[in-house]
């Protein structure tokens, strides 16, 4: 199974050193929830929120598709991941690209 399909269908993805999850947030006390990508970093034992904007969809499914699309842009180099921590952002990008490059290995 490719990473996009697994993340979209199962809501999470594990790569060496990180766990990626799709979630919803209403940080600003809005009635509608907005899509978020959170990442657990094994090195720091902390969760981080991807701060890159994810377009809000009209349906839950569209929200998840938009979140996966943001990660696709990160892999293609169109976006640099922003976790508010430069070291985490850089390590995540390297680990994610390495995992995608060796996608023949199962996630």
Give the strand order, joined by hyphens, for the main sheet. Answer: 1-2-3-4
Structural class: alpha+beta
How far the N terminus sits from the C terminus, by CA atoms, comes to 8 Å
Number of helices: 3
Describe what this molecule looks like in 3D.
Helix content is 38%, strand content 22%. The chain is built from three helices and four strands; from the N terminus they run H-E-E-E-E-H-H. It has a four-stranded antiparallel beta sheet. A hairpin with a 2-residue loop joins strand 1 (12-15) and strand 2. The protein is globular and about 35 Å long. The termini are close together. The model has no long low-confidence stretch (mean pLDDT 89).
Task: Sum up the structure in keywords.
alpha+beta, 107 residues, 4-stranded antiparallel β-sheet, 4 strands
Describe the secondary-structure layout.
Layout: H1 3-10, E1 12-15, E2 18-25, E3 34-41, E4 46-49, H2 60-76, H3 86-101
Antiparallel strand pairs: 1-2, 2-3, 3-4
